């Protein structure tokens, strides 16, 4: 459709049919690239002339819902106006009206539905979130689901371990670090070893950024106290296996970013508590 529209534009045959400008739903877990794809959609639609600006306005429920009766509608409309010419990206859209019984939430959704229809040629709304929650949210307003064409509901699968390894290498290279020789081939195994399946499913690419940051923190601690003649330039930017630490959710425990620094590998028994004992909690004093 986009290619056909562009060819008509090139021949001066632009039509008034704006059905190509459809609002979208991105369904998938956190860290699967929904926000990045929204930015690409905005750039693409701007490039072919369907969006005048091509910017992305990222909002959450707090940016749309006011604290007093009658204020949510104008606040929601104001956010939509800022997105005219581009994309309004609402991540975790179901947080607007999580149980379907919020008066403010209903006012927000009613306003969105009206603006999406009345000004559909001016902007694109992309709502994103987890599968189950998005399905329930779409049923909270009779007109909401009808504003989204089924052809523009996109599902973002969780990344495989091999894909997470590629993301890890990319994030590492962005920071001008690299893996020790031979370690990249074993990276999928290390990711499985130092993260839980639950964390990978919930955080995906975001978990790899955290793992990279933890590895670099450990790598820095490994050589920072050495004399200059004891460490080479390569040592300073090389991540080794010993720098990997358990990252994400320890079994049966909430994520505690202050407690994953020196946990080591996750235990074989998923029922074992991987949290560090009080006396094993790493000291941060030397980093200050």
UniProtKB/TrEMBL annotation:
The record, for InterPro entries, names: AAA+_ATPase (IPR003593), AAA_lid_6 (IPR041627), ATPase_AAA_core (IPR003959), CbxX/CfxQ (IPR000641), CbxX/CfxQ_RuBisCO_ESX (IPR050773), P-loop_NTPase (IPR027417)
In its UniProt record, a GO molecular function of this protein is: ATP hydrolysis activity
Question: Where is the AAA+ ATPase domain positioned along the sequence?
Answer: 20-158
**Superkingdom of origin:** Eukaryota
Alphabetized Pfam families for the sequence? AAA, AAA_lid_6
Q: Which UniProt keywords apply?
A: ATP-binding, Nucleotide-binding
Is ATP-binding given among the entry's keywords? yes
From the UniProt entry, list the residue stretches annotated as the region Disordered: 265-288
Regarding protein family, the annotation reads: Belongs to the CbxX/CfxQ family.
The name under which this protein is listed is AAA+ ATPase domain-containing protein
- Tell me the organism: Eutreptiella gymnastica
Query: Lineage from the top down?
Result: Eukaryota, Discoba, Euglenozoa, Euglenida, Spirocuta
């Amino acid at each position: 459709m986009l290619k056909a529209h562009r060819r008509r534009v090139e021949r001066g045959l632009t039509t008034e049919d704006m059905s190509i400008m459809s609002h979208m739903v991105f369904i998938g877990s956190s860290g699967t690239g929904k926000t990045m794809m929204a930015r690409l959609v905005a750039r693409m639609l701007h490039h072919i002339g369907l969006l005048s600006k091509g910017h992305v306005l990222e909002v959450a429920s707090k940016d749309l819902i006011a604290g007093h009766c009658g204020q949510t509608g104008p606040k929601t409309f104001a956010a939509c106006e800022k997105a005219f010419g581009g994309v309004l990206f609402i991540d975790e859209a179901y947080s607007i009206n999580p149980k379907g019984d919020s008066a403010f939430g209903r006012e927000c959704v009613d306003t969105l539905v009206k603006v999406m229809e009345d000004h559909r040629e001016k902007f694109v709304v992309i709502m994103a979130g987890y599968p189950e929650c998005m399905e329930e949210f779409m049923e909270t307003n009779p007109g909401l689901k009808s504003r989204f064409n089924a052809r523009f509901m996109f599902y973002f699968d969780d990344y495989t371990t091999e894909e997470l390894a590629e993301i890890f290498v990319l994030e590492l290279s962005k920071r001008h670090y690299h893996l020790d020789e031979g370690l990249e081939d074993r990276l999928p195994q290390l990711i499985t070893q130092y993260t839980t399946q639950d964390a990978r499913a919930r955080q995906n690419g975001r978990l790899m950024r955290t793992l990279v940051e933890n590895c670099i923190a450990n790598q820095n601690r490994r050589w920072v106290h050495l004399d200059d003649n004891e460490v080479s330039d390569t040592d300073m930017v090389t991540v080794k296996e010993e720098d990997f630490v358990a990252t994400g959710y320890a079994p049966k425990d909430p994520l505690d970013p202050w407690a994953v620094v020196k946990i080591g590998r996750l235990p074989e028994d998923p029922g074992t508590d991987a949290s560090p004992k009080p006396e094993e909690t790493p000291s941060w004093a030397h980093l200050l």
